[in-house]
Amino acid sequence: MANWPRQDDQLPLSSKDNECHTGDQIVKAHGTASESIKAVAVYEVVKGVGALLGAGALWSWHTDLEHWLITATASWQQVFGQLLAPQVDSAVHIAQVASQNWSVFLLLIFAYASLRFLEAYGLWHDKTWAYWFGVLGYGIFIPIELYYLIVSPFDWFKLAILVSNIIIVIVVYRNMKRKGLI
């Protein structure tokens, strides 16, 4: 009989009922994402918007892409020198490959941005699937990034990406553990 619902179980919960008191801490039960999870959600939105802006820029300049890439690379090197030179070269190579099949390239970018926005929505709204998506989505790349950091010449940008992905996995994992999801 202890598992049977009481008559007042159908009443909406007050804000006091939605909190668990553990010593000096107040932990929200369900439905409220922590500030750290909201920060990860904002980061996901920024990545999605960045991908769409990059796609828009490439699309608008795709008719004269080679000239634009040469000008942009020369301007970058004039202002910043060799800072992020491997990433600039990589971006140039990706743009040159993408220019051969714009429709597939744009479809991939829109799919990537959609996944980023979907994950951001789920994290912001404290959805369980978004926590798993975040841990697996970031965690799967950590060994790959670590491998490339070891086998290729040292690169601060690659190290920053690796560290940020590790931090995100830790933040999401700790929130999952706090919520009892694992």
Could you explain how this protein is built, in words?
It contains seven helices and two strands; from the N terminus they run ββααααααα. The chain is mostly helical and 182 residues long. Helix 2 runs antiparallel to helix 3 and helix 6 (142-151) runs antiparallel to helix 7. 13% of the residues are buried. Mean pLDDT is 78; it is low at 1-29.
Distance between the termini: 29 Å
Order of helices and strands: EEHHHHHHH
Count of alpha/pi helices: 7
Number of strands: 2
Tell me the Rg in angstroms. Answer: 22 Å
* Sheet of most strands: 2 strands, antiparallel
Shape: globular
Strand content: under 5%
Helix content estimate: 55-70%
- Low-confidence stretches are 1-29
- The helix/strand class is mainly alpha
Mean pLDDT across every amino acid position:
78
Q: What's the oligomerization state?
A: single chain
Spatial ordering of strands, largest sheet = 1-2
